[in-house]
Write a structure and sequence with these properties.
By secondary structure, this protein is of the alpha/beta class. The chain has 11 helices and 14 strands. 34% of the residues lie in helices and 27% in strands.
């Protein structure tokens, strides 16, 4: 087998009495998009900081492209691009100036850094804003420029920490397209996210991280295998259903699991096909008007709940707090 691009063994990091990363081990193949999926506080950013040399592990080893980085965290710096969860660009510089400055840090010549900056501004749809100060950019524009800065030196490995958090749907879609394009070009990508649907769309393999521990690592196809034969129905109600409705529905439809999403949406899951007509009649008899009943497919969210034992509601709340980036 070819040597992994990233190899981590027994990685640990604590802050005072909190163990942020608890002895994790994993490998990332060359050219792979590897997803680190978990709620806020799971240890995703701490892991990235150790892999990119921004933090020293308390224990364990890190190897990047065959280079042992545990004792020399900066040894593989020239191979790495980093897009942090918060922008690290300069607000007083223009978009063009920020990119040129980042290129200079990597030793790119003045002529080449200008050319490269112009290419990236065009590719990211930022040419018209090239000479505006970064402080005046929207959240989506800032995120795209931060991504452009992370790849200005064409790194072999790109670390993306929550790349679409807090930005609008259109910008998030564009960022995901850019990530897919980088992957097609052979870049190895390590992606942290709490957007389950984002990981499902982009990643070949995913590690579920909970409280600093990896609870499962596998391909998306293998992760989805246990739930592929499930039937899912999403029902939108005109008003919040009564508190005892779920128990009543479970008694009437014994083979169906009911759950409430966002107050007014019912989610039904079963190993047997779900008949919509009888369901709507029972709901209306109980005074609940149905606006829409939509069939769906089981998702990585179902797997996350099954594997971690955590309610996916925590991830959904984070998505709602941080903006619309994970949807669409």
């Amino acid at each position: 087998m070819p040597e992994p691009m990233i190899q981590v063994k027994g990685l640990r990091k604590s802050f005072t009495s909190v163990e942020a990363v608890a002895g994790i081990s994993f490998e990332v193949a060359r050219g792979e998009i590897f997803g680190f999926l978990g709620p806020n506080g799971a240890g995703k950013t701490t892991t990235i900081n150790m892999l990119t040399g921004l933090a020293r592990p308390d224990a364990g080893t890190v190897t990047i492209a065959g280079i042992h980085c545990t004792d020399n965290p900066k040894a593989a710096q020239h191979l790495i691009g980093v897009v942090p969860d918060e922008s690290n660009l300069y607000p007083e510089l223009t978009g063009f100036e920020n990119l040129c400055f980042c290129a200079a840090l990597y030793g790119i010549s003045k002529k080449d850094r200008k050319r490269r900056a112009e290419e990236l501004l065009k590719a990211f749809g930022l040419s018209e804003a090239a000479h505006r100060k970064f402080a005046a950019y929207s959240k989506g524009m800032k995120r795209k420029l931060t991504l452009a800065a992370g790849i200005i030196h064409q790194p072999a490995i790109l670390f993306l920490d929550e790349p679409t958090t807090g930005i609008d749907v259109a910008s998030a879609r564009h960022v995901r397209q850019l990530i897919a394009r980088l992957h097609e070009g052979g870049t190895t990508i390590f992606l942290t996210t709490h957007y389950i649907e984002e990981a499902e769309r982009l990643c070949q393999r995913i590690a579920f991280l909970v409280s600093g521990r990896i609870v499962r690592t596998d391909s998306v196809a293998n992760l989805l295998q246990p739930v592929k034969d499930h039937f899912v129905l999403h029902v939108t109600c005109a008003q919040p259903p009564p508190e005892d409705l779920l128990q009543d529905m479970a008694r009437v439809f014994g083979t169906v699991t009911f759950s409430l999403e966002n107050g007014e949406h019912l989610r039904l899951e079963s190993r047997q096909p779900i008949r919509v007509g009888p369901l709507v009649r029972v709901l209306e008899e109980r005074g609940v008007d149905v606006l829409e009943a939509r069939r769906g497919q089981p998702s990585l969210e179902d797997v996350f709940v099954h594997v971690t034992g955590l309610a996916a509601e925590a991830l959904r709340k984070e998505r709602e707090k941080s903006g619309a980036g994970g949807s669409s």
